[in-house]
Amino acid sequence: MRKAKWVAAAAGAVLLVAGCGGEGGTDKGGSSSAGSAASGGSGSGGPDGAKDGAKLDAAAVSKAIGDAATGAGFTQDSSGEAVPDGLKECMVTWTADGAKAADPKKSFADTVGTLAGGGWKETRTFEQNGSEIKSLANGTWQLQASNHSAGPMKLVMFVATDAGPECEAAIKADNEKHTKP
b/e map of 20-33 (b: 16 or more CB within 10 Å)? Predict the structure, then answer.
């Protein structure tokens, strides 16, 4: 449980840092909302990101991330963070075992490249102190891909959330449940 809380905190930090637009980050498209789900940007296919016009769901996002990451040489860390039951349709996490990858930096770049080729649009990149965070969007889904493998932790993770109104409400309710004194 202690590791799960640490991974959740790391995921939160990834989302916070990637969303802040801090120094060193680059925005694809010229503005902080360019290509994001909130601004109506989508990858390929329909407005919800699926190639056949159907709404992209958590299972499809999970499969896309898993296929891209394993195809790039990562194995999934079985002790990675589990998504809370009430958010399984709104959030996907995939933690790579960075220590087992032959070249985590290359595997990370290849994973992001495969996702981009599969309809995910890269919207922001942030690099600092050997860490790299890339934001991607596909329909209402937003993905934070983070590579911290240059340090001793070898942490590489992918966290995707659905920014649609139902999921935003569910995530907000879950956050409030855990932040009340």
Answer: eeeeebebbeeeee
Structure tokens at 140: 């209402």
Q: pLDDT of 116-162, one tens digit each? A: 999 999 999 999 988 999 999 999 999 999 999 887 878 999 999 99
DSSP string, 21-64: T-TTEEETTSSTTTT-GGGT--SSSSTTB-TTSSBP-HHHHHHH
Query: What kind and span of H or E run contains 170?
Result: helix 165-179
Element (DSSP H or E) covering residue 136? strand 131-138
CB neighbourhood size of 160 (10 A): 25
Residue in 166, 158, 162 with CA at minimum distance from that of residue 36: 162
User: How many whole angstroms separate alpha carbon 121 and alpha carbon 116?
Assistant: 6
Q: From residue 151, how far is each of 41, 88, 132 by CA, in Å?
A: 34, 30, 12
